[in-house]
Sequence to fold (277 residues):
Amino acid sequence: MRTIAHISDLHFGTEDPEIAAALLAELDGSSAPRPSLVAISGDLTQRARPSQFRAARAYLDRLPGPYLVVPGNHDVPLYDLVTRFIRPLSRYKKYITDRLMPIYGDPEIAVIGINTAHGFTIKDGRIGRDLASAVREALAGVDSSWKLLVAHHPFVLPPSADPSDLVDGAAEAIPILEDARVQVILTGHTHVTFSSDPAAFRSQDRAIIAANAGTCMSTRRRGEPNGYNFLTIDGEQISIEHRVWATDRFAVQTSKTYHRERGGDVIVRGPEVAAGR
Fold:
């Protein structure tokens, strides 16, 4: 069994200190079971300022276990146009990591991150065929039972979402990711939490689960409390809990469980929806 804490949109510079501390207590095992991996899907800072990156770096340094992190569009400077267009992720690389396609793997899970942020628009993201093919190549020799992708911009959206939030190139990338046997995509950006019905990505015999996380600690909320996703992968089953800030602690709001056919690498059935507790 493996567990993954999926957090997103930290936005240091607008963080709520109380919530940030409580989240860290969950991630380091002080107040909740420590996850096998922390997956961070971008927007570590509010305006890509050095002070904000230093705060994010200090927070990551306090995580006791492995983590995987990718940048978001807010990690690209907005007003420094020279940096924005010529070296958009230079500060991210300096303070966080220069690995833009990080990989975590063990016999049960393989998790790969990609960068969908760029400096040519204010908030849009993109994935080209070359990047999707690089994911397929990187996972080609990986025998892990479950394969997950982490990116900032969503690959699927709920009906009420702004279509511009969808990552550019999603339609072309999805078949390539299916060929790579990616079963779960973890994203952020919208500050709204959801996990898809597999039918959203349905092809003849495959499905991908898309799980989006809201902002885990920023005051820039969009109609829902701060929260994050907690994934439990056990054999042919994956459960996704949405944990939200409830006055003085995080608590489970909703949970979905997906069942994969035994022996079917990417066939997912479900979801079953459980009431929050």
